[in-house]
Amino acid sequence: MLRALIFLLIFNLSVSIGFCQFGAGDVGKLDAKKNTVKAYNQATENIKMKKYDEALSNLEKSLAFDPNYALAHLQKAKILLEQDRIGAALQSFNKTIDLDNNMAEAYFDRGYLFYKIDSFGMAFKDINKAIDLGFKEPQAFYYQGVLFLKAGQFTKSIMSFNEAINIKKDYTLAYHDRATAKESLNDLTGALFDYSQCLAYDSTLFVAHNNYGSARIKVGDYEGGLESFSKAIKFNPNYFPAYNNRANAHYFLSNLDQAEADAAKSLELNPQYAEALNSMGIIKSKRDKTKRP
Fold this sequence. Notes:
By secondary structure, the chain is mostly helical. The protein is about 80% helix and about 0% strand.
């Protein structure tokens, strides 16, 4: 969309050159505008090839010709954010919005920056503003949902995730986080469905397998829980919560040897993991009771 806009600018400039008379000052302004757009277009080509330093250089050239070119400030901010240069990125987003306070995309991107640095109130404000201005990309509704989820507003988070999924049917993370919200509302049937949908689109998400397993345990499906926790471990052998959760599933099935082995593995990976320490104590207590005459 941005490239199309720039080509339109170039076309309009060429028409102006053909049909208008200019004074010396006007020609100078026209040349500056052409150079502004040319450098910006070069930057967009650099971005496509992920040559971000070259893109930044061309964006600086564009801004040297026109310091108030909002699109150049926006692309500069995006690159700086990609490079994790948070302070500089924030300055560029602020400049973009100062120049064009109706640029919805800039509000969303700045909101995402705030989300990354855990400034959730500021993130929520900017992302809502982006949506109000017409930014209807699925990620806007997804992050709005995540922020509702963090605030404990589970019903509202589900509504936002619904919007994201309506726009992007295979939005894996939206299914996962909607499942989390439903589970928080004790809608286990809905949660199980969403976890399964998430994994249908991406079967490698170990956290999703782990959380799916936990939901299956809650409805008494211990064998299903074992299956899910084992898949989580398959995709991330160092994911210590899954070992502890599988230990609990084994415990419910009275497989005490396997339960103890999994709890021990969880503690090997994280000796300070309180959940595993608690599980190990419960397992050993039950084992001691079964040994008594």
